[in-house]
Structures are given as C-alpha cells and as structure tokens.
C-alpha cells in the first residue's frame, strides 16, 4: 500500500470542514545481511526487492550482477506489508561499503544516516567517461514523461519520484517513494534485476539533489543527473569531480547546468 486515507479538519477562509485526505505511507523495513541486522530504513512499502537491491548496489555492498539475488521476507505487519527482510551474500562478495556494525535508523529524508565516520561516505573510482551529448529539449520531455507516471504523487502530493532514461529519451524505469534516495535505489535496483543498468544514462529526480544522490548516480554509472529543484554545494563539487553532468531547476522549459557542460548539445553562444 503506497497511500492511505486519513481524516482531517481543514481551515480555509475562516471556516472549518472535515476532509478525507490521501497521504503517502511511511513504514520501516529492517534489512539483515547473512543473519545479522544491518539497518532499518524508512520507506514507502512496495517494490522492496528493488529498493534493497538498489541500496546494496549503490552503496557498494553487493555489486555482483551475475549471481541471483537472494532475499526473503521475514516479518509482516498487520496490513500484510513487509517489515523485515534477510539477504544472503557470499562473504567474498561483500563490498567496501559494508559496515558490519551499522544497525541504526535511516530516515526517509536522509540517505547517509547510519554512516559513522567521514570515510564511510567517501566514494572511490575514476570519473565517468561520457561520449554522449544530451539534447536539453529531450530532457524536458523526459520530465514530462516522469510526471505523467507519478500516480502516487497525484493522489497524495507527498512522495518523490526517480526515473531512468537512455540518452535518446526512452523511459527505462520509474519509482516513487516518500524518500528521495529510496526512489533512486528502487530505480537502480529494478535496472540491476532486469539487467538493463548499462543501457540507462540519465537519472531524473523530482526533488533536490544532495551528496548521496550524486554518489548513487556515480556508483551506477549515470553520466547525467537532473532534478526539479536545487542542488547542494557538495552535490555540485562531487558531480564535477566524478564526471557527472548535473542539471537542476529543470522545469518550465528551463534547466541550469552546474558541471561538465561539454556533455550537452549547445548550439548558441553563451557568456
């Protein structure tokens, strides 16, 4: 269940009236790895397999895409929603992002909760090499296509979306969640499970872009990252270093590019 109805009392123009509003569901899910509790993440229920697979991939915990993904549900709530899962990963396949002592809450607004030291949020690797050139008119159509598919947002107005496209504008996957980083993980996880991650070049998000979204894009080899709202300073700095073309304020036919402009199709002079 991604949304649910709740009663409220609405005040408007000096009057009160009862309302029945649709709200986005926020529920905890505990993730255990090889029998040990790893983290508790707040998310919108649904597509949990994609969420967990994407989180493990984008955080460099389990990046082997050739082995089958072994995950089972171990607990349900009274509504039948999954509240705990167990993932089995061969010990020699655990990546550098695995922190055995991490067992804390990761809230829906923060993708790096649970990291204990600054070194835990560092990313390694060569900058992305991009041989494409993105047409910004095509980017505008991508955002329109993403908006059309945001069914939960249309009902509740309370969830984020992430979508993956190839550089030609073909939609590869879209997911919604109350957490920005969860929506990104669900998209990445879906692409990994389908074997399509290497075919996607553009990652779009409905909200702002901060550090953790940039690192997830980098770990998944997205050369383009675009958002409806603003980026943070750290997002711009890391995107510049990691070879990602970062575009923000992508709405109403506009977009602002903050890094790696050479990957855009620019036909007019600018100052």
Please explain how this structure is put together.
This protein is α/β, with parallel strands linked by helices and 271 residues long. The protein has two domains: 27-121, no CATH class; 136-263, Cytidine Deaminase, domain 2 (3-Layer(aba) Sandwich). The protein contains six helices and 13 strands. The chain has a six-stranded mixed sheet with strand order 9-8-10-11-12-13, with helices on both faces. A five-stranded mixed sheet has the order 5-6-3-4-7, with helices on one face. A two-stranded antiparallel sheet has the order 1-2. It is globular and about 55 Å long. It starts with a strand and ends in a 14-residue tail after the last strand. Residues 116-121 have low confidence and may be disordered.
How many helices?
6
Flag low-confidence runs.
Answer: 116-121
Determine the CATH superfamily of the largest domain: Cytidine Deaminase, domain 2
Class of secondary structure makeup: alpha/beta
Share of helix among residues?
10-25%
| CATH class wording of the largest domain | Alpha Beta
Number of domains: 2
Q: Whole-number radius of gyration?
A: 19 Å
Strand tally is 13
Our estimate of the beta-strand percent is 25-35%
What is the CATH fold-level name of the largest domain? Cytidine Deaminase, domain 2
User: How far do the termini sit from each other?
Assistant: 50 Å
Strand order of the largest sheet: 9-8-10-11-12-13
Shape: globular
The biggest beta sheet reads:
6 strands, mixed
Give the overall average pLDDT.
89
Specify the CATH architecture of the largest domain. 3-Layer(aba) Sandwich
- Topology as a string of helices (H) and strands (E): EEEEHEEEHHEEHEHEHEE
